[in-house]
Amino acid sequence: MSTELFDQAAEELARQTDWTLLTARGTLRIAMKAGGVEPNGVGSRELRAVVEQLMPRELELRGIGEPELVCAALIERVGDVVSDRSSSDSDEVFRRLAGD
Fold this sequence. Notes:
By secondary structure, this protein is mainly α. The chain has one domain. It is built from six helices and no strands. The protein is globular and about 35 Å long. The model is unreliable at 82-87 (pLDDT under 50).
């Protein structure tokens, strides 16, 4: 994920949850690691996969009510960022998240 995209996602997560930016960044990194996604070099499709499939659980574990709404808002706010990575990279992420 580009640094800019990661920063935007973390900032939005902090806004949606009233967390500090440090907490938001750490939680986002944990979710990415759980999906086998490195924070550097992946794009918006990979971020979307992580947020949709892994982030609700991370938020729930941390006491955030209605994690699906938080994730939907996060996707909406950062979803317009265009990835410069190929779709084959995002396909790989989806395969890893599915356990293939």
